User: What shape does this take?
Amino acid sequence: MFPVTRPRRLRISQEMRDMVSESTIQPNKLIMPVFVDENANSPKPIPSMPGIFRYPISGLADYLNSLESSGVRSILLFGIPSSKDEVGTSAYDENGVVQKAIRIAKESSTLITMADLCMCEYTSHGHCGILKGDVVDNDATIDVYAKIALTYAEAGADIVAPSGMMDGQVGRIRTALDKNGFKDISILAYSAKYASGLYGPFRDAADSKPGFGDRKSYQMDPRNIREAMREITLDINEGADMIMVKPALFYLDVLREARQRFDLPIVSYSVSGEYTMIKNAVSSGNLGESVINEAIGSIFRAGADMVITYFAQYLAEKL
Ligand SMILES: [Zn+2]
Assistant: This one.
């Protein structure tokens, strides 16, 4: 009790504050999303995400080297293919854009290479799977996910990350990997992925906007938290090695609840809309740059082991 107890003693200097801090941001806990564009010849700025680019296959190795020298240790690859069709054929082409990018990453860097696994960048309609009428057919879609996973594994990916929110996707992929000699490839499951308005800038970046309708019949309802725990439990039972809560900042309660219930590594994806809001506020001078650390730090404090963030390189350089 005051005056004996004075919490301010432990805040007296930066050194003291650093020593007693309860959570920290470390470069090896940050994952940088990387957009690889098969149609590009030079890095193309993404207008809705200032400072973020789509990289051409030819310039990828240089960019990955720059990430590595800034201290980033892992990447999450997304591809923009040169061709799309109804059934997303280019997603499981062994010489597809992500498959090529994985090979380049593994040959030119020591980065942990994760590859996002979905169909929305590869289908002409922009949905995350095979359509039956206007609805994504779950079971036909997860068969295609398994095919994609095998091409990623053959290309040398360390981790495959299914993001389509189809039922049974993790189990189907695990079985396919194991049957084909890829028992050591990990699965990062996008377990609790919400149908969020914060994905808008990403859809420009990855050219993956649905041509009609929305994704509410497979992504989660933002009003729910118990449903997220159920989705995570199912993914763990199907063999997920790591689980994800996405987005991050508007869903810190979900992350906290997951941290308390589950022992697997938890990843949280601070999505494009979070990046753009913060970046624009800082660039305009309306907020100071310290909010970047505060925002990403809040995700770690809430319980994330790793954070996927477009600020990964910026933060790694500062640390
Ligand atoms: Zn998708």
Summary: The longest strand covers residues 30-37. The chain has eleven helices and twelve strands.
